[in-house]
């Protein structure tokens, strides 16, 4: 760009470079999706098609941004884990979060049209997402971050499943259902579901209970070799040998250690 006498205004700009060699997690969350889901008549408590839309948007993020190695999402949110040594946009925070928010919003709209063609989006209620980036210094923090989101998914889903059973099957008003659930523990909600509505919570679709996980997976990763010498240096050497990566979808438990120990490369 040509220099001009006005160029100096650029020096007022601020930049925040995210800490190098640390794990970046970027979370996007839908703006006002409580109203958005009402407006487009989402099935309650879980609209499967809407979840397919957000899931495909998340997968597309991974297709276009190879630095994303894992994504976890439920409801109207998705978290993306970037490789520890990634240099996407030189780790500039504002560039990262604004790009994630706008790319995600654009993909969501694209896949909405694919999955829900019968409900064209209205100009006054278009899907929009915000984004934030958080930097975690070690692997334990990263695992706990994803555990935190999955526990949140579980708590919300159990609440919403019970709440909407009381309303849709039990004939309560939303106020009555809310009052009925005040002070109840998980066990109480499970009991309401089972005794009043014959629903065994365990049998509910894992996508609703556990959310959706995408992993850039190395199927040819020599896990047994790594376990003989589980050091970072060895992991790095082994990673040079793995060739094939695919993006795989799961609805599994990410709270237990086994999810992470089977895939040490996620935290490299
Ligand atoms: P970055 O992602 O870093 O912003 P960029 O390729 O978007 O990279 P910009 O400096 O933003 O780089 O430049 C945008 C470019 O897009 C312009 O240089 C021009 O080539 C092209 N462009 C944008 N709008 C138009 C338009 N209406 N007609 C023709 N070309 C356009
Ligand atoms: P904010 O703009 O602060 O994020 P919000 O209304 O989006 O406000 P959230 O806490 O993000 O609030 O909650 C999202 C809400 O969207 C959920 O509580 C739920 O009601 C609704 N929702 C999102 N996805 C689905 C879905 N697939 N099926 C049914 N409801 C959904
Ligand atoms: Mg939201
Ligand atoms: Mg949300
Ligand atoms: Mg540009």
TrEMBL record:
Keywords: GTP-binding, Magnesium, Metal-binding, Nucleotide-binding, Nucleotidyltransferase, Transferase, tRNA processing
Positions bound to Mg(2+) 1: 29-30, 76
Span of domain tRNAHis guanylyltransferase catalytic: 6-137
Binding site for Mg(2+) 2: 29, 76
Binding site for GTP: 29-34, 75-76
Enzymatic reactions: a 5'-end ribonucleotide-tRNA(His) + GTP + ATP + H2O = a 5'-end phospho-guanosine-ribonucleotide-tRNA(His) + AMP + 2 diphosphate + H(+)
GO molecular function annotations of the record: GTP binding; identical protein binding; magnesium ion binding; tRNA guanylyltransferase activity
Family: Belongs to the tRNA(His) guanylyltransferase family.
Name of this protein: tRNA(His) guanylyltransferase
Species name: Pichia membranifaciens NRRL Y-2026
């Amino acid at each position: 760009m040509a220099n001009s006498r006005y160029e100096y205004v650029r020096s007022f700009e601020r930049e925040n470079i995210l800490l190098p060699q640390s794990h970046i997690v970027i979370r996007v969350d839908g703006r006002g999706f409580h109203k958005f889901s009402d407006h487009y008549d989402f099935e309650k408590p879980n609209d499967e098609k809407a979840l397919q839309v957000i899931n495909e948007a998340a997968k597309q993020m991974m297709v276009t941004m190879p630095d994303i190695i894992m994504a976890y999402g439920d409801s109207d949110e998705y978290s993306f884990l970037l490789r520890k040594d990634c240099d996407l946009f030189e780790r500039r925070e504002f560039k990262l979060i604004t790009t994630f928010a706008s790319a995600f919003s654009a993909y969501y709209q694209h896949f909405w049209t694919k999955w829900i063609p019968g409900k064209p989006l209205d100009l006054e209620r278009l899907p929009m997402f915000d984004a934030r980036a958080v930097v975690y210094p070690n692997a334990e923090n990263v695992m706990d971050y994803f555990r935190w989101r999955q526990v949140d998914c579980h708590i919300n889903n159990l609440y919403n499943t019970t709440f909407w059973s009381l309303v849709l099957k039990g004939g309560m008003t939303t106020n009555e259902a809310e009052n009925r659930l005040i002070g109840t523990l998980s066990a109480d909600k499970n009991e309401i579901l089972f005794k009043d509505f014959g629903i065994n919570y365990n049998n509910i679709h894992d996508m609703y209970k556990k959310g959706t996980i995408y992993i850039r997976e190395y199927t040819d990763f020599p896990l047994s070799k790594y376990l003989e010498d589980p050091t970072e240096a060895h992991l790095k050497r082994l990673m040079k040998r793995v060739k094939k990566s695919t993006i795989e979808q799961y609805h599994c438990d990410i709270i237990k250690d086994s999810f992470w120990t089977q895939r040490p490369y996620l935290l490299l």
